[in-house]
């Protein structure tokens, strides 16, 4: 039963990633692209967690945590750069 | 693993991935950036939270250990998602929105606080508008 739910989850999150890719390619403004990349990383974390359940191993949580931290830092740095023209003043 | 654990894990996986899907669907469906922010910052965060709770229940049920890493990821994302959305909205306001024409009046002496501080000075340069 869990395997069927995992299949459903893989399909749904992969479709979500494809829709994020669409927004990343066709986003009218640069902030749309930043938002699309941020959402892509969050969906990738969901995919990693589901894959961790699939393989029944807990080694993937560290990579998920690292991805979460890097997503936050890179998005904030990108917005700072667009706002002020500089990341650290 | 008993059937109750399995049903709990399945419900959380299905609900979580469905909400992740809904968030990304809102990202491509909604008309402008300020509306598009709602999808990822609410629905996708909830979807990821559902997947993390499913993983936590699954590993508690199979291996009998309670792992703290999922809670760590959940709290980190629940703290950072509003900050990210705020930064993106602020960058959008300063890049594409005219403070004299596009935003509603505040009713006070000064404009919105992100454009103008309370003593009337401009807080941010509107340098690279397009």
List keywords for this structure.
heterodimer, A: 89 residues, mainly alpha, 3 helices, B: 130 residues, 4 helices, elongated, disordered C terminus
Summarize this entry quickly.
The complex is a heterodimer of chains A (89) and B (130). Chain A is mainly α and 89 residues long.
Task: Give the secondary structure arrangement, pairings included.
The complex is a heterodimer of chains A (89) and B (130).
Chain A: H1 2-26, H2 30-55, H3 61-84
Chain B: H1 3-29, H2 33-36, H3 38-62, H4 69-96
Look at the structure and give the mean pLDDT of chain B: 83
User: How far apart lie the N and C ends of chain B?
Assistant: 58 Å
> Which pair of chains has the greatest number of interface residues, and how are they split between the two chains?
A-B, 52 and 53 residues
Q: Element order, helices and strands of chain A?
A: HHH
Query: What would you call the structural class of chain A?
Result: mainly alpha
**Number of strand segments of chain A:** 0
Classify the secondary structure makeup of chain B into a structural class: mainly alpha
Q: Oligomeric status of the shown chains?
A: heterodimer
Strands of chain B, total number: 0
Rg of chain A, nearest Å: 16 Å
Assess the beta-strand content of chain A as a share of residues: under 5%
What are the secondary-structure elements of chain B, in order, as H or E?
HHHH
Average pLDDT level of chain A: 89
Helix proportion range of chain A: over 70%
State the share of residues found in helices of chain B, binned by percent: 55-70%
> Major sheet of chain A: size, sense and barrel closure?
none
Largest beta-sheet characterization of chain B? none
Low confidence ranges of chain A: none
Poorly predicted tracts of residues of chain B: 126-130
- Shape verdict of chain B: elongated
